[in-house]
Amino acid sequence: MSDADTDRTTSTPPSSPAPEGSAEAASEQRGDGFGRMLTRYGRIAPASIALAVVVLATSIVTGTLWSAANVGGDALVWAAGVTTTIRAGFWWTPFTALFVPEDLAQTIIAVVLALTVMAAAERLIGTARTVLAFLITGVLGITLGVLLQWGAANVGELWATATEFDFTLDPTVGIVGTLITASAFASALWRRRIRLLTFAVVLVFVLYNGDQNNVYRLIAALLGLGLGVLLRRGGLRRLHRSSHAETRTLVAAIIAITAFGPLLALLPPGGFGPLSFVAALFERPEVDVAAVMARCDVSYTSNCRSQLLMVSVQGPGPLLLSILPLALLLLTAIGLRRGRRFALILGIAVNAAMLLLPFTALGGDVDLDVQSIDALAPALEVLLWLLAALLVPIASIALLIATRRQFQIRSPREAAVRFAIIVFCTFALLALAYLIAGLASLTEFVPDATVADVFSSALRRFVPAGFLSLLGTPIVPTSPIVVVLYHWVGPVFWIVFIFATLQLYRATFTGRTVADEEHFRSLLRQGGGGTLGFMGTWPGNVYWFSSDGESAIAYRVINGIAITLSDPVCRPERAERTIAEFVQFCDANSWTPVFYSIHGEYLPVFDALGWPTMSVGEETLMHPQTFDLVGKPWQKVRQAHNRGVKARISTLWTTWDDLSPLIQTQITAVSEQWVSEKELPEMGFTLGGIDELKDPDVRLYLAFDPDGGLQAVTSWLPSWRDGRVVGYTIDFMRRADGSMSGIMEFVIASAAQHMRDEGIEVLSLSGAPLATKPLDDGDADEPTAMDRLLAFLARTLEPAYGFASLFSFKSKFNPTYETIYMAYPDAVALPAIGNAIGKAYLPDANAREYVALARTLIR
């Protein structure tokens, strides 16, 4: 794909009220597009929109929008619960509770979920089934929950007794049930994602927060599973095996969800789940630090230990340490998503440490002393709750061990050594600083410290507050310098650890050797790779080879996205096998494969894989063997060519190495002049620069004036079949200042004549990004959302890079058009894919260039 400084000869008639491409027309198009989008949304999700409106209306009518229902008022008449539904006889409340939110926060959450999650479900199963699923799962979920709660309270069950007088106003109960119902109609990939992630979220809320709304949501979700099977009428769906990447994504998501569990325990009302006690880890009991320090310094009583423990967790440093388990689990999830072995080990270690939390957080508050038969049941229930507290870390460890084969990617040895050195040296320096300061002020601790106490305290500085009760008697410093180190050496160490781990995750073994490049070129000469295949030899790309070495793909990895360039380099009959093997290779390395700039002949392979594809541009092709300049369609090019002949412009077909140093210097000067005039960042990836035209296989076509001055330079990338060059693709295009008008048309026409004489079959003017080929009347289809997005990007980037102008220039040569595509495995990855491709095109742009780009786009 070339970029050129082309002549622009078109203009907009001044009488046109809103010319195409103008700001007014773009605004009108955006307005019309937004209106059509809203209309389509209204047709797809009327029930979801209606629910959002009803929830908003009932919150206003009942007053819960500005005053929470638990404050008082008539809203409790609509609330479900043991006291309202059963004891007060309000039998309608399991229904009405689905339409009245409890407070402002729940109103916002319910409206957002209705317009997003429930709308997605409605798109899968239709409006009638959505309404049915919402009512059945919501009403039955709340009804069964109330009955179970009432029965359990009558026998003295702890949770039911504690929540017996609570009530429920919660539209999200029905929304969750509807989502799980709709999952039965989703594809295997999305069915698994919806169910696993939804149940993971709901269960974490039940375990850590434990209020009755969460339990009702769990019951509704279970009902949704059964209702989905009934509505689908296809029996139970068999389990589909997940790919490596999908398994890693799901496991990482589950670990990330469990990481937020302790924070959920802080949400009101909280305190009812088996794991709600972990909220104590984040509590900072108010304590008079000065009074405690003074009293315990004078007389160290039995109460001083607990009071000094409370003093030791005051301040922002200890608070940061308290959320360390959450941060490490999120760090684990990031690594698991990338298939990293270190993340697997880290996840197991963190969850093993979390097994200690029930015993450290609860301290001595649990009494299982059974004095009578009547006390046996409550004691057993407390024991079961303690065991349930171990459920999440044990289940997480079991999940990681069961899926351990999916996390085999190890970092290079040098990266692992660098990580170990950074972590060890950071720990040693921080611990040493605290030890030196502490030992120098032994008498400035409360209580007075010994050398052994200071060493023990140094270890405690790196441990979260929830585990401190396991590490002996605390000592608290009074010296200002030691106090700073006391609070901050731990957080600083773990911050360094987190960033060092993220660097370790990024380290890969991918590289490019001379032997790889020679092998790739040899395969190119045999055939394959398409007209753009030679771009795979450019710097930045690495190579994958099939197991038998007969196929190759050039790619680059950016943020976990493996972007290939052009078609697979192989014989046509091997294409399907080559693509499948490369996908497996990316899957094993936890990369998302993206096939970029592929031609239409490969689309059936991706259709068979179930991959979406999208157009990313149009390639313009000429055919030298039938090329001539006869006829009206060639008038503009013919005029430019004749002008060059009359001006005695000479041409040279050559390579960089065959040029004299003087001409090489002229080419460099023309290129540097062109770049210097552009404030914008120079693009790469499929757009070559001065370095790429120095390749011995790349041909140059130069134009000189009668005095020997360089007028224009073009470079041509070869494509082969059975060792013979059968095509050339233009890449580098530069013209000198003051060159003849139409010089590029002259050069390309002359190059086509030269290639005709050499027997070349195809001349490619390369691809025009984001361009759309002209369509005959009646061929245009209804534009998709992606089509509209690409059109918007084309209009937005046009002032900066002139893609449309370049495409218009190439159309002068009456080419045939061939659409080039991008194939990708999952639409969810499109934002990451777009970001990666953007970085591929602008890998070295600096802040000043991005500012210039932004300034150009908003002019």
Overall pLDDT level: 80
* Helix percentage: 40-55%
Give a count of the beta strands, DSSP E runs of length 2 or more: 13
**Fraction in beta strands:** 5-15%
Secondary structure category: alpha+beta
Report how far the terminal alpha carbons are from each other.
26 Å
Detail the poorly predicted runs. 1-30
Number of helices: 33
Gyration radius, rounded? 34 Å
| Major sheet strand order | 3-4-5-6-13-7-12-11-10-9-8
What's the main sheet like? 11 strands, mixed
> Which overall shape is indicated by the principal axes computed on the Cα atoms?
globular
Overview of this structure, please?
- By secondary structure, the protein is α+β, with helices and mostly antiparallel strands.
- The protein is built from 33 helices and 13 strands.
- Strands 3-4-5-6-13-7-12-11-10-9-8 form an 11-stranded mixed β-sheet, sandwiched between helices. The chain has a two-stranded antiparallel sheet with strand order 1-2.
- The model is unreliable at 1-30 (pLDDT under 50).
Give the gist of this structure.
With 859 residues, the protein is α+β, with helices and mostly antiparallel strands.
Features:
859 residues, alpha+beta, two-stranded antiparallel sheet
Q: What is the secondary structure topology, with strand pairs?
A:
Blueprint: H1 23-44, H2 46-62, H3 82-87, H4 93-96, H5 104-125, H6 127-154, H7 158-163, H8 172-183, H9 188-208, H10 212-232, H11 244-259, H12 261-264, H13 289-298, H14 304-312, H15 316-322, H16 324-337, H17 341-354, H18 357-362, H19 376-389, H20 391-402, H21 413-439, E1 445-446, H22 451-460, E2 476-477, H23 480-506, H24 514-526, E3 542-545, E4 552-558, E5 561-565, H25 575-588, E6 592-599, H26 603-609, E7 613-622, H27 635-646, E8 650-654, H28 661-676, E9 699-704, E10 710-721, E11 724-735, H29 743-758, E12 762-769, H30 785-801, H31 803-811, E13 816-823, H32 830-841, H33 847-857
Parallel strand pairs: 5-6, 11-12
Antiparallel strand pairs: 1-2, 3-4, 4-5, 6-13, 7-12, 7-13, 8-9, 9-10, 10-11
Helix pairs in contact: 2-5, 5-6, 5-8, 6-8, 6-10, 8-9, 8-10, 9-10, 9-11, 11-16, 11-20, 13-14, 15-23, 16-17, 16-23, 17-20, 21-22, 21-23, 27-29
